[in-house]
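To: structure desk
From: M.T.
Subject: fold request, one chain
Message: Could you run this one when you get a chance? Sequence is below, nothing fancy, just the single chain.
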Amino acid sequence: MATPHPHGRHLTYADLRRWPAEGRWELVHGEAHEMSPAPSLLHQEIVGTLYTLLRAALHRPDEEGCRVLVAPVDVVLAPPGTPDEAADTVLQPDVLVVCDPARLAETHVRGAPDLVVEVVSPATAYRDEGIKRDLYERAGVAEYWIVHPVDRLVLRYALREGRYGRPDVLGPEETLRSTRFPDLALDLRPVLGPPPRDEEPAADADA
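Reply: Done. Structure tokens follow.
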């Protein structure tokens, strides 16, 4: 679970950059949260699969193309005109797509990515579906996917008139069709994997 740092003052990205390299941290309205310990193997497999699929479909590292990135990458969210160093909200999505080269700094992403993906665990679901969802919505992230490995579901939020509204809920046998990238149709079977063994149909006793 992300644990708030016991610091007595409002922090900025400049403060975070000066901290020791050990550990991973996010900032939410000036409060630092330490990221969970090393994620599960299932989490990492899903992140790797999504990165590979999205990179094959979207990645064009030229001036007019999109970049697909994987954590840890700092995404600095700040009001217009605020220097990056003064930003008090910095997140590290599991996977992200950025199509505007002006948003790519040498060390971080400045402003809203075009697509953000978070792979949740029981310990992070509240933040990913509540706090982070609201932050991505306000920042203008066009599309936000939340992957539930245990339930084998993907929630897809699409920004319309500045709001996300209700998400599309997709299972492993479905195809995720992006609103931000109309040509992207993602088969979710490789992402969510086969059903657990106790969900597989029982063999015919007469076979």
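Reply (cont.): The chain is about 20% helix and 25% strand. Let me know if you need anything else for the meeting.
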